[in-house]
Amino acid sequence: MALTSLGLPNAEVLFDPDFLPATEADVLLQELTDTIPWRQESLVLYGKPVLQPRLTSWHGDAAARYRYSGLSLEPQPWTPALQRLRHQVEAAAGTVFNSVLLNLYRAGQDSMGWHADNEPELGPEPVIASVSLGAVRRFRLKPRDPHRTPHEPLSLDLPSGSLLLMQGSTQQHWLHAVPKTTRPVGPRLNLTFRVVMPL
Ligand SMILES: O=C(O)CCC(=O)C(=O)O
Ligand SMILES: [Fe+2]
To answer: Which residue ranges does the record assign to the Fe2OG dioxygenase domain (predicted)?
Structure first.
């Protein structure tokens, strides 16, 4: 199947549930789990350092420096597996990316809170291409301002090998999250390919 628009107002969100064949997704999950230098970063909340509820790694071209929730992230180099996936995603998204943020949700208690990817270095209408590998987790989307964007919050199960594309004004008008779950779930690895502009 190809990328299909979700048809959300004030947004351009497209979804392909089977972007990668299952065996390719499995092999990639194993390779990235084993070779990426995963770290549990902390961020400062109300003046106190708090460990993020997930593992991360930031990779990209040397020029793609990035600040994220008060962290300044130096990109790690592209690995061969990341380069291969980058080119597949670029062909599907019609965009050339210079970086990728990897998130490893080890189990159901790992999560990502409500946010928009609207840091200044991403520019006003960022293209963000999100590949999911491993356990299915629920991705939530809700309007930032329900008066300006009247739409119910929605949930999208992101299966292994799926591709979710957020572009246009999505980050201006919508927030997204990956909530915790008490269901027993295995690890899920997510990659968000991005274009970071030097400021
Ligand atoms: O894990 C996901 O599907 C979302 C990741 C995300 O929103 C981010 O990295 O900014
Ligand atoms: Fe995000």
So the answer is: 96-197
Question: What's the rounded Cα separation, in Å, for the pair 53 and 106?
Answer: 9
* Amino acid at position 167, single letter: Q
Q: What is the CATH number for 79?
A: 2.60.120.590
**From ligand 2's centre to the CA of 90, what distance in Å?**
18
Q: Confirm whether 126 is domain-assigned.
A: yes
Instruction: Report yes or no on 199 lying in a domain.
Output: no
The verdict on residue 150 lying in a domain is yes
The ipTM value here is 0.99
Residue 57 in contact with ligand 1 by CB distance below 6 A: no
Q: Report whether 143 contacts 10 (CB < 8 A).
A: yes
In a domain, 57, yes or no: yes
**CA 56 to ligand 1 center in whole angstroms:** 11
Pick the residue whose CA is nearest to atom 9 on ligand 1. Answer: 192
Tokens of 125: 């209408």
* Residues spanned by the domain of 62: 4-194
Cβ atoms within 10 Å of 25's Cβ, excluding its own: 21
Based on the structure, what is the number of domains in the chain?
1
* Structure confidence by residue, pLDDT tens digits, 66-105: 666 566 667 999 999 999 999 999 999 999 999 999 999 9
Question: In angstroms, what CA-CA distances link 174 with 97, 114, 149, 157?
Answer: 22, 10, 8, 18
Q: Whose CA is nearest to atom 1 of ligand 1?
A: 190
pTM: 0.95
